[in-house]
Amino acid sequence: MTTQEVELKALMLASLDGDAASYRSLLDGLSRRLRAYYKGKLARMGRGAVETEDLVQEAVLAIHLKRHTYDPVEPLTPWVHAIARYKLIDFLRRTRASSADVPIDEADMIMAHDDNVDAESSHDLKRLMQRLPEKMRCSIEAVKLDGLSIAEAADRCGISESGVKVNIHRGLKALAALIARETRT
């Protein structure tokens, strides 16, 4: 095991025991790793920093919602990588990336499915989403949960396409802040 794996796993175990400071440190460390991972993957597809940050926020939110599924006997980084990979696959599906845009060794990812949906995680997500302003919630639900395009989400939510993009970006940050606040209490 690498030193980083040992450190991250220790933070995860402490956070699962209710240590809020360890949880914040874990999310900071994972965010840096995820940012590097997504930056590398997306750069090869001609994507930029905005998409990278969106994916980091989505992955951190998924880690928070799925943390109860982590098996403490197993290494942490493969579990995190699996979540990160599924978020990337979802992003590629949502953005309708053609297989011509995806490096050949990663083209099979587009066809993968994440069938692991937990009722508890869904409940947590719904509860957190209810705390967001209506237009922000509508934008996130339409694009991130229902898989609509930005234009379709704009029509559904009754706002401009740029408004949808801003709402998603700010909404994901707000969700991350809500999660951080909940772990402190």
TrEMBL record:
Keywords: DNA-binding, Sigma factor, Transcription, Transcription regulation. Residues 124-175 form the RNA polymerase sigma factor 70 region 4 type domain. Gene3D superfamilies: 1.10.1740.10, Winged helix-like DNA-binding domain superfamily/Winged helix DNA-binding domain (1.10.10.10). Residues 34-96 form the RNA polymerase sigma-70 region domain. It holds the Pfam family Sigma70_r2. InterPro entries: RNA_pol_sigma-70-like (IPR039425), RNA_pol_sigma-70_dom (IPR014284), RNA_pol_sigma70_r2 (IPR007627), RNA_pol_sigma70_r4_t2 (IPR013249), RNA_pol_sigma_r2 (IPR013325), RNA_pol_sigma_r3/r4-like (IPR013324), WH-like_DNA-bd_sf (IPR036388). Belongs to the sigma-70 factor family. ECF subfamily. This is Sigma-70 family RNA polymerase sigma factor. It comes from Bradyrhizobium denitrificans.
